[in-house]
Design goal:
By secondary structure, the chain is mainly beta. Helix content is about 10%, strand content about 45%. The chain has a 4-stranded antiparallel sheet.
Length: about 70
């Protein structure tokens, strides 16, 4: 898989919650969890299932940083 995005995080799908139109996919990337809202058809096309490996691909022009 070749992508222009530089933030490609490999992990394990830990949850797929399907709604009426979209699904929330949660991926454990080594202790941290990344969540994504994608279409149900994308979940089905990718064959995303709990316990399988997947990639969280992040491409953004802005990244916010916070601190307590």
């Amino acid at each position: 898989m070749k992508l222009s995005a530089r933030n490609v995080l490999k992990g394990t799908v830990i949850e797929v919650t399907k709604g009426a139109v979209n699904a929330i996919v949660r991926i454990d990337i080594g202790g941290a969890v990344v969540s994504s809202s994608i279409t149900i058809s994308a979940v089905d096309e990718l064959g995303l299932k709990v316990g399988e490996q997947a990639y969280a691909v992040i491409k953004a022009s802005d990244v916010m940083v916070g601190r307590d």
